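Re-running the complex after MR caught last week's input typo. The corrected sequence lines follow. Everything else is unchanged.
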Amino acid sequence: MGEFELLAALRERLPTAGPRLVLGSGDDAAITVPGGAVATSVDALVEGVHFRRETASLRQIGRKALSTALSDLAAMGAEAGEAYIVLGAPEGMSEAELLELGEGMAAVAGETGTAIAGGDLTRAPVLTLAVTVTGYAARAEDFVTRGGARPGNALVVTGELGGAAAGLVLIEEPGLAAAAFGADATDLATFDRGKQARPRDLDLVSADALRRRQLDPTPLLAAGHALAEAGATAMIDVSDGLAGDANHVAVASDALLTIDADALPIAPGVAAIAAAADRDPLELAASGGEDYELFAALPPDAVVAAQRALVALGMPLTVIGQVESAGIAGPRAELRRRGGEALPSRGFDQLRPRKPR
Amino acid sequence: MGEFELLAALRERLPTAGPRLVLGSGDDAAITVPGGAVATSVDALVEGVHFRRETASLRQIGRKALSTALSDLAAMGAEAGEAYIVLGAPEGMSEAELLELGEGMAAVAGETGTAIAGGDLTRAPVLTLAVTVTGYAARAEDFVTRGGARPGNALVVTGELGGAAAGLVLIEEPGLAAAAFGADATDLATFDRGKQARPRDLDLVSADALRRRQLDPTPLLAAGHALAEAGATAMIDVSDGLAGDANHVAVASDALLTIDADALPIAPGVAAIAAAADRDPLELAASGGEDYELFAALPPDAVVAAQRALVALGMPLTVIGQVESAGIAGPRAELRRRGGEALPSRGFDQLRPRKPR
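Corrected-run output:
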């Protein structure tokens, strides 16, 4: 198969129709007629930096590439529109493997109503994905940016935190995972599902959920839209870690965000992983990143309606803090334990050298 | 500098305002209000596949990445809008180098009225650029696709062909370049500008133009818009090589495109390079690729007006063939010499292993 045949085979597997898409992939450019406002975001995933093929299937990698890009649109409260995919394939990669990757993307595109409207296929030294996504709203002011949080607003977060970071430990450090199970590595294969777990022990259902949280995050498009409808004044997806992402909102909104660290909703199993890894579960929840939950500011009188809307979508919305004036110390997010101790506000810097995941 | 500081420094150097751009880089997504139809295209450049840092400066690489992406919009007849840049930087790359790359992009953005509206910065094993560009027209049908060529249409091409391929020979094969100059490599430094050149000899002005054509192509946005206004029924930019690109138009339009090979406008100096490399100048002009000229189909009565419009932009528009019914042999582009000999219709396949450029 040459480039053009492979592109044709990929196109066959991908959802390529959308309500605003007049002409999809195959010409010099795709043509859309938005009829309103457009939100556009780009995201890259590079083998050895963002994922390892030893621990994630190509289908999972394809899913995650599109899901994490769409998560940025969720954080705008946007309706998903189109995706444009740059795929850099290493020399040894077979056409079957490329199609498996495409099928992962196709699945997420189907689940979210995203049309794959274009792309570029090229050689690259390692598997490289760059995804551009577009989302829609009737008017520009319907989108929720990071910059609208106002003093008196409540701070909320969807779902549960720390799961993706704990999942990464499970995937990358099997020794620690075994300790979290209360068993050594050789016992894992015969681990007794019925056995009474000690409080800090991990159960297999939670472990599986944590791994999936890391390998296959869900873009919370419906939740983002519901929060926008409920009147969210600022929103961001938790990709770098809650502390770092809250700081982005603080700076963009020129506000002080005070977050009650003890109120953070922590995913089941995170405490067991943290204990085994000799880390604070709050560190995983506040700085681990990649949970792709949504963190938002809401007027206090909008919180109950927002919570009802999210329960209808099957997920909790937890109040974790409030917005105050920045004051002379300047805009920042502060995580405090109830004792008063401030936690270090640590983000996650893509350019800082770190272990490949 | 961390990722966020570097992004801020890059943003300072880039044009970030556009008439349809409500919110640029720095939030979860950029916000635009198109008010009409949008053309979107993505393009990737990978070190070792599309360029080599030994032969192109970072400024040139930055320029070429944005220019080649915008060339696809030129081929739609679109007005340039925004660009979104994924930049994968290898470990050893300094911030000064990243900023030089950004300055190259900024220059092209400024020249073309493109706003840099977003991006993603990540580590990658080699320098990797993925550029998404958006362009505009009032209505979707104002864009010129590849699929509208009709029997009886004239086929035209802007400017001159073969220059980028000849430039690549000059850059990558200094020995051949010396032969084309009619001198050996050691004489090049003292080459006498006033010397009478033999007919096949290359002059320094042409050589410089050929190198620039390869390293720094120009997206023909104004020409593309003029051709659309003149009534072009199909259009494509010459990136893979005229023969291959004409074939894309033939297939999309379900037509036979007959091209008079002897009518192709060949850039000055290409004949000298071809002679030195023992290749047919027509091969460089028809299959070399990367000239980023525009190839279009026009109703015959629209040709003169189109030529006048392009002369006003400082470039020739040459009639090189015509559109016929596909017939039972199916859609295809045929290049014929006046003697009747058909040339092999060769494209350029990104996935075929080839020398890095």
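None of the earlier attempt is carried over here. Chain B has two domains: 3-142, 154-336. Chain B touches chain A through 69 residues (CB under 8 Å).
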